Amino acid sequence: MSVKITAVAKQLPQYTRETKDIIPYLNNWLSGQDDRFKRKVIKLFENAGVERRYSIMDAKDVFTKTSFEEKNDIYSRETIKLAEKSLIKALDKAKLQPTDIDYIITVSCTGIMIPSVDAYLINRLKMKRDIVRLPVTEMGCAAGVSGIIYAKNFLKANPNKRAAVIAVESPTATFQLDDFSMVNIVSAAIFGDGASSVILSSYKSDNGPKIIDEAMYHFYNAETMMGFKLVNTGLQMILDKAVPETIAEHFPKIVHPFLEKNNLTIEAINHLIFHPGGKKIVQTVEALFGVLGKNIDDTKEVLKLYGNMSSATVLYVLERFMDKQLPKGDKGLMLSFGPGFSAQRILLEW
Question: What are phi and psi of 112, to 5 degrees?
């Protein structure tokens, strides 16, 4: 019995600006800082590989709203809307009703909600009363792929069922107004907000790429490389500058044994569905894949158009491949990295 991905659909927040239009807000925010530092920050934004980003808050609010409660209230209200819209779109693509879903997984790490967003979706869309819920909150950028892995395992054990994975994130709600550290600035330069939903099925009659295999890879002694610290003003980003170097060091152990287990080499992979963590990580992985004769053009395009939306971003890349109507037999490798530190992998066949 195979598990297939039948539909993917994204939803963007209402506010959007090009990076060049954010520079005046940066200048105002940096008004008390040294001129050399200001130039460095602005250059960092301009060279981050992100041309446009979307947000649950307008730029003026991002640079004025300071209280954790205030930002988290906006996060809670807007993520419910984004999650609902993206799920409805995905269901429409799959020609399904909300009551056709047996298992719902919601992933988000950029705010705090209890109950989690899935409870609101069940009520708003009148989903099954006995639907199985799984909220995933602490896996960061890797959670989009993690959610698909959890859904696949549920469906593999339960024939003729369907699952929805909804990733919804607002990194802009974590921006620290009084923090002029490079970590806060780099995260602001590369991150944006967004949501995406994936429908999976264990029905033989449903169409879509099959999940051939999946696996997680854990980096030892790397818990402090990436994540959030809860402070009085909200979720403060943790991002070690050694992340790209660490990925490069472990890359052969992440990719090749996983493919070998499935009697494949990288040459047999037609499509790379890679999470765009940021320009440096993209350049690192592009160099590694480039040596192997592969490209991650769709990953770079998603980073340029939307920025890094944490767990939802790799699903934006996946949607681009789903919309291409790829030839039967084509194989794809999904790959994302997240706090822990970990790498999540999925092997797909169209």
Answer: -125, 125
